[in-house]
Amino acid sequence: MVQIEKVITYTGHSDAVYTLECGVEPHQFYSAGGDGNIVEWDLNQTDAGRLIAKVNASVYCLRLVPERHLLVVAQNYEGIHLIDVLSHKEVGSLRFTDSAIFDMKVVGDLLLVATGEGKLIVIDLPKLKVVHELEISDQNLRDLLITSDGHCLVGSSDGYIRKYRISDFQLVKEVEAHSNSVFTLLQKGNTIISGSRDARLKFWDATTLLEDESINAHMYAINDIAERKDGAYLATASMDKTIKVWDYAQRKLIKVIDKARHQGHLTSVNKLLWMEYKDFLISCSDDRSIGVWRIDIKK
């Protein structure tokens, strides 16, 4: 038995909302999108969020570095801005690309950046200096995953997943994973899960990158995958306007969250956060709204 309740609808962005990121406090999170606004939200409040920064282009990715109290903002067609999340002031910036920035991950002092020019840019965060560039593909790099065994997986618009050693950024393995762009990657133990523009959800051996299972999961592109803290359930966000909830062990669909039945989104669902705080699932969309969902699953 699965019960879905929409707890909060946040509005305030004037354009599509593309990305979400956890906040410093358990009840906080950040959002950004086509309007260039970076907004801080408090899940204990249902009113408007707090604008903490604004850039002059769309933002596809935010990355919190909690130990440094930094929020890294990826401004498309320029580079990054560093926002101190305590003072809400910009403390640094670096221009290094004229393309879109689709994802960022932090490994120690390094920031790994996936760009629309097919390059993986490695930045020394304390020094705000580019230390490495890898030309990986002639198409967009869409998602990065830092694996538990010290590798970086890169999903790209050519349909490939590529595995690099972080120690020396040498290519270890590559597989033609999907028939179209690989938008999202998630690791669960020795399993890698990928979602693609081809609307398929695929499961891979994390070591060998051999395919284990492929599911026709949505009608259109899968934009993101999120995992509940207990690891028992996954949620997928799609261009088909739905959020789907999956039993991971059975790899089985158990609920569809849509407009007709649950006051879901009107257009593409772009990003998900499954928070530990009250077990809330947060979603954002091209419809300019952010939804907060309570998902009660009883076996």
Automatic annotation (TrEMBL):
Keyword Transmembrane helix: no
Keyword Repeat: yes
Recorded coiled-coil stretches: none
Transmembrane segments: none
UniProt keyword list: Repeat, WD repeat
Name of the protein described by the UniProt record: WD40 repeat domain-containing protein
Residue spans of the WD repeats: 10-51, 175-208, 215-256, 262-299
Domain of life: Bacteria
PROSITE patterns the UniProt entry points to: WD_REPEATS_1, WD_REPEATS_2, WD_REPEATS_REGION
Lineage: Bacteria, Pseudomonadati, Bacteroidota, Cytophagia, Cytophagales
